[in-house]
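Quick one:
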Amino acid sequence: MKVQIITHGTLLDDGKVVSGNSVRAHLLAQGLVDAGISVVHCHPRSLSGLATSRCPAITVRTYADRQDLARVLDQESPDVVLVGYWELLEDLPAQLDVPIVLDVVAPRVLEVLYQDPNAVARDIARMKTLYPRADRFLVGNERQRVFLVPWLLLAGFDLREHVPIDVIPISLDATSARQRTEADLGRPVRFVTGGVTWPWRRAEAFFDRLVDRLTQFPSGSAELLLLTGTYVYGGPAQAEVPCSPGSIVKRSDLLPYRDLKALLRSSADVGLEVAETNIEREMSQSFRMAEFLEAGLPVIISARTELGRHVADYDAGWVVERPSDLDAIVAEVMRDPAVWAGKSRGACRLAADRLDYRVTTRPLVDFVRNPTRAPRLPREPWLDPGAGTGWRATVHAFFRRSVERMAHGKWR
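Output:
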């Protein structure tokens, strides 16, 4: 069997800074390949990137436009197409008689809400047009699954017998996790965080509080490492993270993927993924968290994330509601290496039990081996966009607006 993954990210090259889309596609592909399924990694040619894969079961293809993608699909003849970014559904041929899986691991419409509120209505309209093209959907956690359900209803899916959504978290390779001992706690104790400073991810108050706490300890005993930079495929320059200056705060550009992994395994002690609470953060999954846990690092994470609940359950770190919660955590890390080592054990268990790609990709493998078309609701004339003009169009517009208002919670 063959799956063609079409995503806005090149095949993962661990010698370069990589995007989340590339990491996501890489681990989905690994799960498929391990199950004996061949993979074609396909991305827009404008992204450049690796032309060949080190894995014989993975082929790399690129495409220039919609017509070119149709040619590639015809040549590869996949059994299933997996689209790794929802907008790329527009690039697919109009008549494609292959089951389509859509990965919506990040609810993009919630990101747009903070990035460009004026574009939300446009994206909603596009999503309702494009989602009906897919037969299966992947999300990153249970909250995202619940969030997706009304969108599928609006897109015309019949959810009475089965909801075509699989939860596949942002994953990792748990065989790389390194359990720490008390002797591994470094000096200085290095807290590390990083990534692109998106407008929906506001962490300055937490960083300032952490730095303030760390300054209470002798010079050279602790530091915060910030790995920041611009999105790999372009975008506006990143704002400077306004946390307190001084020798405690170290800054670095984003690192090539293999260098990031090496740093986390060899010279980091605590992973930090915190931000002010908002609707996007409550739904989010974090690539940083996966990298921290894969390295066996205890983590500090916002309590209102779904992964925060798992961190608490596995004692894999600490969960925080507000910046002041960091005070006791910092004191514990600095003064009790045994607690820190115990939480590293929890991090390794969490990585193996819930986030290892060999576990998380099983639903995708099952679907590829037995792909089915998702049932659709019958289309009534008054709900049909092709109802024409006059009274039919008026009734259709009324019902469409009514369903949309209910889906967005405007009627209670």
